[in-house]
Amino acid sequence: MATRTAKILSEETLKERARALSQRIGSAGDLNETLGPHAHLRCRCGSAHFAVALEHVVEILTNPTITPIPCTPSSLAGVINVRGVVVDVVQLDTMLGLEVESPWQTATTPPRVVICRVDGQPFGLRVDAVQGILSIEPDTVREAPDTLFGSMREFVDGVARGGARGEEIISVLSPRKILNARSFERLQGRMTPVPGVR
């Protein structure tokens, strides 16, 4: 039986979502319905590929200024100011136990911060690159294998296959598990939900 893989959406759909992601915090999430309930943002940290459900994605920022916070875990890159809203940023490669120095990181490929939300709480994921949008149906997601890098299993809902022949393994990140990580415990009292953001 042929292996079912994640589907890459059309260029027109990608452009439509890019316009949605450029909108202000709290206004882009409803447009997830346009792309279907299984749409995921694909991103990369080092050699590891990830997918984040678009229902949790608010917008993507290119190389924003991140202000470090003293006395916080190394998995927290710091905070950014998004139109007056202070948003905590996760250093995703560190939290997942990946290589901190990415061989693909150059001046021409600045890092991205993917702004997510869970139960109205915004936070950012610092990644090396955003690679497009995939449609991942729930029945194609499998349990994460023990061979995943570092502590990745702790923060994913499973893995899916991507690529033309299913040759790529894409880890499906769980924004909720990341937000509930122990690294965030000391910040929970300071983080304030944005009005109008579910």
SSE blueprint and pairings:
Blueprint: E1 7-8, H1 11-21, H2 32-35, E2 39-45, E3 48-53, E4 57-62, E5 76-82, E6 85-91, H3 92-95, E7 112-118, E8 121-127, E9 129-135, E10 156-162, E11 168-173, H4 175-179
Parallel strand pairs: 3-11, 6-8
Antiparallel strand pairs: 1-9, 2-3, 2-9, 4-7, 5-6, 7-8, 10-11
Structural commentary:
It is a single chain. By secondary structure, this protein is mainly β. The chain has one domain (7-187): CheA-289, Domain 4 (OB fold (Dihydrolipoamide Acetyltransferase, E2P)), CATH 2.40.50.180. It has helices at residues 11-21, 32-35, 92-95, 175-179; strands spanning 7-8, 39-45, 48-53, 57-62, 76-82, 85-91, 112-118, 121-127, 129-135, 156-162, 168-173. The protein is globular, with a radius of gyration of 16 Å.
Q: Keywords, please?
A:
198 residues, mainly beta, single chain, five-stranded mixed β-sheet, OB fold (Dihydrolipoamide Acetyltransferase, E2P), disordered C terminus
Quick structural overview:
The protein has 198 residues and is mostly beta strands. The protein is built from four helices and eleven strands, in the order βααβββββαβββββα. It has a single domain, classed as CheA-289, Domain 4 (OB fold (Dihydrolipoamide Acetyltransferase, E2P)), CATH 2.40.50.180.
